[in-house]
Model the fold of this input.
Amino acid sequence: MTQPVIAAVGASKVDDADLPGRDLFSVALAEAFDGLPDPASLVEALYVGNQSEQYEHQIMQGTLLAEWAGLRNVPAERVEACAAAGALALRHAVKDVRNGEHDAVLACGVEKMSAGGTGGTTDSLSAAFDRPLEQRSGVTAPSQYALLAQRYLHETDATERDLAEIAVKNHRNAVANPRAQFRKEVDAETVLGSPPVAPPLKLYDCAPVGDGAAVALVTTPKVAADLDVPAVAVSGTGAAASNIGVAERDMTEVEGARVAINTAYDEAGITAADVDIAEIHDAFTVSEALLAEAAGFAPKGTGYQSHLSQGERANGWTDVALSTSGGLKARGHPIGATGLYQAIEGYEQLTGAAGKRARPDADTALLVNEGGIADAMTVAHVLEAEVAG
Done:
């Protein structure tokens, strides 16, 4: 099988944007292909992650973005897994290249969330919940995650301040990320004093609504060498679907995420201890704690220590840096594009392009993108700086 690599990336800044989704995609595409041949001469297929057609009343996103990229008569598909849509698009591109179906595939993600307004966004996100048991009761994403947070605080030594410190860390990381929605540090008192959304979660515990588009060119080592661009190997990928309803799950054990991550580890032939940086799905601060444990970085009940330095964490923690981009919390979370923004951070960290937020000597990255509530759908990828031919 062919070793898939990411050879080019691009994205718009996450923001409340004036541009429609297709134009945000054009911004991302122009950055990715700056100095490269026209996409039409290279790309053989396209996948686009897009959470909901409700924001811009637009389906056929695969065809639309293929047209916008100048591609004709190529396979072009929209994939959907709520907030895991972007990573699912990347996974499809990786599998196409790995299986020899195509030599160059464009993985894309786009979401124009602000077009739906607050009510429209809430309704679109709630469509990821079980219809008869959850949607009709009026629950929202923050209220669902609040259940997880309440249980986590009850079963561990974590406090609301610990969760707040995760937000503080991710805002600090976002300062050095030019694509981030919020490039401003906050302190724990600001987080704790922000308006309650769904106790114990407050406004600054929650990822914001944002618009954005991101792309990654997945190809072969030979094509990357011919293009004379830095490439990183996608050495492992995994996916797992858990129950759609929170009531059917252990709220402090994201089992589906653990399965997806371990599948990616096994394919790559690594363990959690080998991971230098991890972009994980911190849609809410409690998510980072739960996923740190699911990824094997932290002993159970200690994931909330992700904001601490290695010497301050509990015994059993690996030396991993989490959410170096600022994460969903501060980089932003344009739903269908988030998985590709994670891939961009991994690519830039492993190719020396991360600037002031760089993790020295990083050569292995984990990407974890979840959809629905917690691990209703999880997609994980391992990126490595060493590319095998």
About this structure: The chain is about 35% helix and 20% strand. The two ends are 10 Å apart (CA to CA). The chain has two domains: 5-117+210-232, 138-208+234-384.
